[in-house]
Specification:
It is built from 15 helices and 11 strands. The chain has 372 residues and is α/β, with parallel strands linked by helices. It has 2 domains: 194 residues, Rossmann fold, CATH 3.40.50.11820; 167 residues, 3-Layer(aba) Sandwich (Rossmann fold), CATH 3.40.50. Strands 8-7-9-10-11 form a 5-stranded parallel beta sheet, with helices on both faces. Strands 2-1-3-4 form a 4-stranded parallel beta sheet, with helices on both faces. A two-stranded parallel sheet has the order 5-6. The longest helix has 26 residues. The termini are far apart.
């Protein structure tokens, strides 16, 4: 996307957010809020994101009336996004609870009714890289409308992450509660871990009995113009690994269409992997919960930290930092042989202390009882 077309798109979004969406919302607010109702919504997926699934299951067990509004603005185009937004605004105006897990323009565009409570689950368990208001990369300087507001609850994985997220989102510290991240509950389920392994080896029987090396990098740039770094190094690594190793590539959703990768979602690959290769991705938080070795492949460290910036430096992360493709194979072999995961334990105690397998229950209670 050219800089001119991107800029025009942003001005169009400001027009919608500042005038059209608030007017539509006010029209729908003529009817009262319906008790015991909840809507799950996202503008980056056609189906319910993994981040929401456990909380949705919890609402179903309590017999809430559930609505779903999912569309992919990038893939489906402007018309589909506009229609999806109008449908959401109609529901938003009359629903008791709203669940989102990413930037979602319709929630920020209005003056929300006080009877409606919004929970922002976010799509990452932590924030190694800076995001939102904390970096110039995510939000253009000329974008004058708020990109995050109207949240009543943002669950985070530890008190320290509450500080980071509050600064990044530019919102009051008190709404960031260290009660855990819902999506991490699955990693404490033996059934889930077993199912993931069965699914993987059924699809990739050639990997059975081998050490699974998972490469799961984040994207560079922003969501509108994502870039991938490290492909050549990983291709070289694949040729150099011993025959008892099997390398799997799992790319960020913003990168999959252009670069491919494994079709199995990353959250279902983590239980299978013996070693994770990643960089500044939030996937590191979830893998740390599984207490397995990590390699931090950071070939663009200087440029990345200058452009976007980091909340957590590599020496505070679990795993060995690697800054050159030439030293990556040896680092992976060292990780495969690693037995001392004390650094991972310390990381979990600092950044994941509220993730214990029961976060979804606490989030549900904080959301449904917090406004009472």
């Amino acid at each position: 996307m050219s800089s001119l077309s991107f800029r025009l798109k942003q001005y169009g979004k400001m027009l919608l957010q500042g005038i059209i969406f608030p007017a539509v919302y006010r029209i729908f607010c003529t009817k009262p809020v319906t008790p015991h109702t909840v809507v799950f919504a996202d503008a980056h997926s056609l189906h319910m994101p993994f981040d929401m699934q456990l909380l949705a299951k919890k609402f179903r067990t309590k017999n809430y009336q559930i609505s779903e509004v999912f569309f992919d603005a990038k893939e489906q185009g402007t018309r589909a996004a506009f229609c999806g937004t109008l449908r959401f605004l109609r529901i938003f105006a009359r629903v008791e609870y709203v669940v989102i897990c990413d930037y979602f323009l319709p929630v920020t565009a209005v003056h929300k009714r006080p009877e409606t409570r919004v929970v922002q689950l976010w799509h990452s368990c932590g924030a190694i890289k800076k995001f939102g208001k904390d970096t110039a990369v995510d939000i253009p300087s000329y974008y004058r409308m708020p990109v995050m507001r109207n949240y009543d609850l943002v669950p985070v994985s530890a008190p320290l992450n509450a500080e980071i997220f509050a600064r990044s989102m530019g919102l009051p510290r008190e709404i960031f509660q260290p009660i855990g991240v819902s999506r991490t509950d699955v990693y404490f389920s033996h059934t889930y871990l077993t199912q993931c392994r069965q699914e993987f080896f059924c699809r990739y029987p050639q990997a059975l009995g081998k050490k699974i090396i998972l490469w799961a990098p984040t994207f560079r740039g922003n969501a509108g113009t994502p870039e991938l770094v490290g492909c050549e190094a990983i291709a070289k690594l694949q040729k150099q690994l011993p025959k008892n190793c099997y390398l799997v590539k799992s790319l960020h959703p913003h990168l999959k269409k252009a670069h491919g990768g494994c079709a199995i979602p990353t959250e279902r690959l983590l239980p299978v992997a013996d070693v994770l290769i990643s960089d500044y991705s939030g996937v590191i938080f979830e893998f740390a919960l599984l207490k397995k070795p990590i390699v931090l492949f950071l070939p663009d460290f200087a440029a990345y930290t200058k452009q976007r910036g980091l909340n957590i430096q590599p020496d505070a992360l679990p795993g060995e930092p690697v800054y050159s493709a030439d030293t990556l194979p040896h680092a992976v072999l060292r990780a495969l042989a690693a037995t001392d995961l004390q650094k991972t334990e310390q990381f979990c105690n600092t950044y994941l202390s509220a993730c214990d397998g029961t976060a979804t229950e606490r989030i549900f209670l904080a959301l449904t009882q917090g406004g009472q």
